[in-house]
């Protein structure tokens, strides 16, 4: 590992100031993606600013009808939190299926969203549940947050502080995972609130995306059969050594149907 500075931030304002002063600095939360990239020399920050111990940044609380999860909350904490399990059990179950025990003990929701790995689970949860990403300076709707391969709406010195999740009537997340990395070859979050159905797909393309055809079919009939009847175009999907675009296109309605079946069971 090459030399770099390490700073531990005491508040969000101080952390952001460090990155404003040094364009090559990076925020460090759980480090599950950034440290691996540094070891492979894919990233070479001059400074790491640890934001994981900023007071309040790991809190999980209820505000009105929303579940608010601090950006530094670990995956394991989200999975085991009583309010998450009560209000959005699909989110708790999803968090419990991320990576392995070490990843869940260290990785954070804010770090996952800022990295926007195409196979990550949290982007599907945020987009499917119509969450709001809260930063040190603004609120960003889920539909405006994810931009492309490892690309989000965040400015280089912008820090995620929390994520606000509205409580759905029904929701479920199902993924077909890579057996080695446990990233999603395809992951599907289905959420129903009133008459509105949202379907978010991760692992299949360069970034998470919504599936309008599936949303329309499930709005008309919230049943597994309605999901299975939708044909997904493979043109925009990824082909790699793990799966072809055509196979991913086949998996999307199948997994969506399973998610609907699980959501209906409550």
UniProtKB/TrEMBL annotation:
Keywords from the named record: FAD, Flavoprotein, Oxidoreductase
Source superkingdom: Bacteria
InterPro entries xref list: CO_DH_flav_C, CO_DH_flav_C_dom_sf, Diverse_Substr_Oxidored, FAD-bd_PCMH, FAD-bd_PCMH-like_sf, FAD-bd_PCMH_sub1, FAD-bd_PCMH_sub2, Mopterin_DH_FAD-bd
This protein's record includes keyword Oxidoreductase: yes
Coiled-coil parts of chain: none
Domain FAD-binding PCMH-type: 1-170
Signal peptide start-end: none
Database matches in PANTHER family: XANTHINE DEHYDROGENASE SUBUNIT C-RELATED
Name used for this protein in its record: Xanthine dehydrogenase family protein subunit M
Biological source species: Cupriavidus campinensis
């Amino acid at each position: 590992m090459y030399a770099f500075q390490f700073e531990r931030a005491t508040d969000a304002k101080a952390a952001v100031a460090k990155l404003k002063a040094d364009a090559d600095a990076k925020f460090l939360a759980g480090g599950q993606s950034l440290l691996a990239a540094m070891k492979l020399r894919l990233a070479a920050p001059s400074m790491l600013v640890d934001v994981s111990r900023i007071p309040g940044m790991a809190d999980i609380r209820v505000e009105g009808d929303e579940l608010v999860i601090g950006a530094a909350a670990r995956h394991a904490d989200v999975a085991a939190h009583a309010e998450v399990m009560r209000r959005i059990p699909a989110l708790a179950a999803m968090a419990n299926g991320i990576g392995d025990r070490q990843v869940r003990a260290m990785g954070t929701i804010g770090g996952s969203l800022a990295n926007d790995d195409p196979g990550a689970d949290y982007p599907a949860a945020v987009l499917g549940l119509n969450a709001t990403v809260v930063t040190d300076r603004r609120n960003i709707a889920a539909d405006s947050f994810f931009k492309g391969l490892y690309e989000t709406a965040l400015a280089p010195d912008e820090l995620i502080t929390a994520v606000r999740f509205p409580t759905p009537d029904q929701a479920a997340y199902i993924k077909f995972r890579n057996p080695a990395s446990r990233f999603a070859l395809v992951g599907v979050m289905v959420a129903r609130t009133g008459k509105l159905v949202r379907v978010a797909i991760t692992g299949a393309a360069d970034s998470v995306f919504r599936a309008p055809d599936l949303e329309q079919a499930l709005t008309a009939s919230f049943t597994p059969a309605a999901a299975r009847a939708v044909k997904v175009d493979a043109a925009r999907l990824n082909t790699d050594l793990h799966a072809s675009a055509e196979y991913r296109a086949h998996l999307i309605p199948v997994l969506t149907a399973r998610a609907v079946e699980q959501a209906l069971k409550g």
